[in-house]
UniProtKB/TrEMBL annotation:
Any one cellular-component term (Gene Ontology): endoplasmic reticulum membrane
Classification via InterPro entries: DER1, Rhomboid-like_sf
Species assigned in the record: Lachnellula subtilissima
Name the record gives this protein: Derlin
Domain of life, source organism: Eukaryota
Region (Disordered): 220-256
Organism placement in taxonomy: Eukaryota, Fungi, Dikarya, Ascomycota, Pezizomycotina
């Protein structure tokens, strides 16, 4: 299997995020794209026209050097696992709704407490936290140690604190808060608080992921194309109008 085939078979949202993160980070660190135009800067949103693309690009720039490889790897690994196999995201559009929510919370927390310009590390920790919650009771490998899977994101946060700085650890921690808040509103509160899911996937997002499937059958006498039938109450089966179906059995013309 070629690299292109492997990429095409990867989960669409995760592969798009990973490819965007890797490409944009390379371009930024090579100064092909000036850093100023990809950072989150509050003042650029109140000017005209507002530079709203910064809400996206601030999540797509990794750390320098090996950060480009590791951050891209973790985003793809944990993201594809959530997109393909997590029971939390079983319905169309659930994973995209999750991403939009955690990114919104991450931005809000950083605006309020850290003043950060880039949020990719927070998104990595959010993906890791949510993914590892599905693996409770299992072991995960952290370097050469085996630790409970649910503690993996906290071990990653500790490494950021040791190898980078307290400020970067605080930024990354906002991803844990955002992911836990999503887990509380969608799982913990409905299951243990007696409430309902407070973050349902909006209908317009579901429609983005729903496709009409056409079945094509090749037969000896030609090709049959079947479209999915409408499930509405107003649909009818057969070729006769509904008003004709209630007229009784009828009689043959010319009969006695």
């Amino acid at each position: 299997m070629s690299a292109v085939d492997y990429f095409k078979q990867a989960p669409p949202i995760s592969r798009t995020i990973a490819a965007s993160v890797f490409t944009l980070s390379i371009l930024a660190y090579l100064d092909v794209i000036p850093f100023y135009y990809v950072l989150f800067i509050k003042e650029t949103f109140i000017q005209f026209p507002p530079q709203i693309w910064r809400l996206v690009t601030a999540f797509l720039i990794t750390g320098p050097k090996f950060g480009i490889i590791f951050d891209t790897y973790f985003l793809y690994t944990y993201g594809s696992k959530l997109e393909k196999a997590s029971p939390k995201f079983s319905q169309p559009g659930d994973f995209l709704t999750y991403i939009l929510f955690v990114c919104t919370v991450i931005v809000g927390l950083n605006v309020a407490f850290t003043g950060a310009y880039l949020f990719t590390s927070a998104l990595v920790l959010a993906f890791a936290y949510t993914s590892c919650q599905d693996d409770r009771g299992m072991k995960a490998t952290f370097y050469i140690m085996q630790i409970p899977a649910q503690y993996m994101p906290f071990a990653m946060l500790l490494m950021i604190l040791i190898m980078d700085s307290p400020q970067q650890a605080l930024i990354a921690a906002t991803g844990l808060v955002a992911a836990h808040l999503h887990d509380f509103l969608t799982r913990l509160w409905p299951e243990f608080g007696g409430g309902t899911n407070l973050l349902p996937t909006p209908a317009f997002i579901k429609r983005l992921f729903q496709t009409r499937r056409t079945t094509v059958s090749h037969k000896a006498y030609g090709t049959s194309i079947a479209q999915p039938e409408s499930s509405g109450s107003g649909s009818s089966s057969g070729v006769l109008p509904e008003s004709w179906k209630a007229r009784g059995s009828g009689h043959r013309l010319g009969g006695s």
